[in-house]
Amino acid sequence: MPAAVGAAVALILTLAACGGSTEDANPAQTPETTTSAPETTASAGQVDQAHNDADTMFAQMMIVHHEGAIEMADLAVEKAASQEVRTLAEGISAAQGPEIEQMTSWLVAWGEDTTPSGGMDHTGHGGMDMEGMSQEEAMAELEGLSGTEFDRRFLELMIAHHQGAVEMAQTQLVDGENPQALELAQQIIDDQQAEISDMEGMLASL
């Protein structure tokens, strides 16, 4: 009997020890299972409010300028004889549409008008002409052309159009304040100078 009692006591103690170790292990695992992922940066997608008149004018005028480029590019997608020119036009439209949305969001957040105070729109460009032609005049000329003649004239006018955007962006880098607008200005310079080089190559091959 004593031996049996001893064995029972030993069994009880063993079970108690096991139970205790299980309960002790759970809290130790809790920090690992409840570790949270890093929080998303609060400023992501937000508009930097710091801006001056140059930032406002840059955004307002570049929106109109981009709208003109998209109008020309969409026409080229329909009419260009060369697949290379159509692909270029598709790329211009795809890139500049989101930039228009971005700049519009800045102006709204800044409490500024989304169009210049002079009332410039995409049919006039308010001095942002191409070889002495307004947006309206350039579109009228392009609509009257076809085949290789269309491709050549589209490239010539779009090169001039891009050069205007580069000049506007360079002015923004000198006069602007808003870091997001300055970053976009540099991006426009880089992207459009590269496209100018591509278009000059296409012209040489026509």
Spell out the key features of this protein:
206 residues; mainly alpha; Ferritin; disordered N terminus; DUF305_CopM-like; signal; Lipoprotein; lipoprotein
For this structure, the quaternary state is single chain
- Alpha-beta classification: mainly alpha
The CATH topology of the domain at 55-112 and 147-205 corresponds to Ferritin
Going by CATH, the homologous superfamily of the domain at 55-112 and 147-205 would be Ferritin, core subunit, four-helix bundle
Mean pLDDT: 82
Strand residue percentage: under 5%
Counting DSSP E segments of at least 2 residues, the number of strands comes to 0
Query: How far do the termini sit from each other?
Result: 110 Å
Radius of gyration: 32 Å
Q: Class of the domain at 55-112 and 147-205 in CATH? A: Mainly Alpha
Rough outline:
elongated
The count of helical stretches stands at 6
Uncertain runs: 1-43, 121-127
Could you say what the CATH architecture of the domain at 55-112 and 147-205 is? Up-down Bundle
Order of helices and strands: HHHHHH
Helicity, as a percent range:
over 70%
> What's the main sheet like?
none
Protein name: Lipoprotein
Pfam families: DUF305 (PF03713)
Biased composition (Low complexity): 30-43
Domain DUF305: 55-203
